[in-house]
Design a protein that fits this description.
glycoprotein; receptor serine/threonine kinase binding; six-stranded parallel sheet; LRR_dom_sf; mainly beta
């Protein structure tokens, strides 16, 4: 059985979330700008849903995040620069959406990033050197560039 609907608007505002995993459901709407309000969020796993719209810039302020899996949704627009450079993230999965723009040079600040999945989006522009360094030591998927 899959869950459906929108995420509650107060989800990050009043609860001290450390992990949010709503993967493999039929949630729709946008990612809430308040998810990081508590400052405790470590894992955001929303793959395989129907989420759409742009990623809120506030997601780039979630300094505790270690895993971000937004793949296989309907997100669009540019990924906020802060999201590219989250310092503790080791997994950033943005594959199979409709993201556009370029990979921000702030990705150089993502010192722990070892798994990066960007396939099947509308990204353009050069691939920053920091991404090339990731691909030499770990796993990167950027097909469909």
């Amino acid at each position: 059985m899959q869950l459906t609907g929108k995420l509650p608007e107060n989800l990050g505002k009043h609860w001290h979330l450390r992990w949010l995993d709503v993967s493999n459901n039929q949630f729709y709407g946008s990612i809430l700008a308040t998810l990081c309000d508590s400052g405790d969020l470590e894992e955001l796993l929303v793959i395989y849903n129907l989420f759409s719209g742009e990623i809120p810039a506030s997601l780039g302020t979630c300094q505790s995040l270690t895993r971000v899996r937004l793949g296989y949704n309907r997100f669009s627009g540019e990924v906020p620069a802060g999201v590219w450079g989250l310092p503790h993230v080791y997994l950033l999965e943005l594959a199979d959406n409709a993201f556009s723009g370029s990979i921000s040079k702030t990705i150089a600040g993502a010192a722990n990033l070892s798994l990066l999945f960007l396939s099947n989006n509308n990204f353009s522009g050069p691939i920053p050197d920091a991404v090339r360094k990731i691909s030499m030591r770990d796993q990167i998927a950027i097909t469909g560039w």
